[in-house]
């Protein structure tokens, strides 16, 4: 805490100081029991998503290791949230940021990134539809991004293969959950995109208490971690469920998988708003839907405390199609 004229103040020096230490909130109105659902309010980060954590750590580590030089451009391939986090960090550190993103991802994310000084290049989809992005759509954005990185001499963040992505959650998200819950946590669940959140958080929690059960949340019909055939590659859970096992994923900290349909994600996204007063995204709805399922499944005691991230704000999305309301 800084002091001015001998009087302490709580003034932050940059937006980087706003990243992390998000509240852990009980959804006791939505789920009065048995058991308890606790959620990490990651929309409170300055980029309105959990990806601010990994953006900060990956850039700080790249700078510390000499991989990213002062003033050097940065390039990333994103579904939007990582790009928003990187836009904040790069703005503070003075790195020009370019991102490539599938046109299937919400245009609100492109608007957000560009408002923070980033250049967002939206890449046409090769097989998905707006709001439904497949791994091949991501690959198209990656191919273009790698070309641009070479052309402009940019540092490529490479979130899908960057261990500092997962390490950010081992160093921050996991310890915060452990402390904020008073060491009372029976299960942790999370959707998986890059797998950074799940890999880092579950590793930390398992080290603290091996009895904590950690479950992956996958979209129904796109469950490669469970090991079933991909029957529904198109779904509403942007930034997750790409139909492949991410390179950062570690099976040794996983106790099982849970599936959620688009309809369930929409239902619980709506309930989180109506019951708890929080406007969140579709993966947040999926996480809470999965937490309710887990408490009813018999896989854990029905009076368990389950922790899940609310990954981002609902302001990052185009309204859901009428067919799913």
From TrEMBL:
PROSITE patterns in the cross-refs: CYS_SYNTHASE
The protein's required cofactors: pyridoxal 5'-phosphate
Segments crossing the lipid bilayer: none
Residues in coiled coil: none
Pfam families per UniProt: PALP
UniProt keyword annotations, A-Z: Amino-acid biosynthesis, Cysteine biosynthesis, Pyridoxal phosphate, Transferase
Biological process annotations from GO: cysteine biosynthetic process from serine
Protein name (database record): Tryptophan synthase beta chain-like PALP domain-containing protein
Family classification: Belongs to the cysteine synthase/cystathionine beta-synthase family.
InterPro entries named among the record's database cross-references: Cys_Synth/Cystath_Beta-Synth, P-phosphate_BS, TrpB-like_PALP, TrpB-like_PALP_sf
GO terms of molecular function: transferase activity
Domain Tryptophan synthase beta chain-like PALP: 17-310
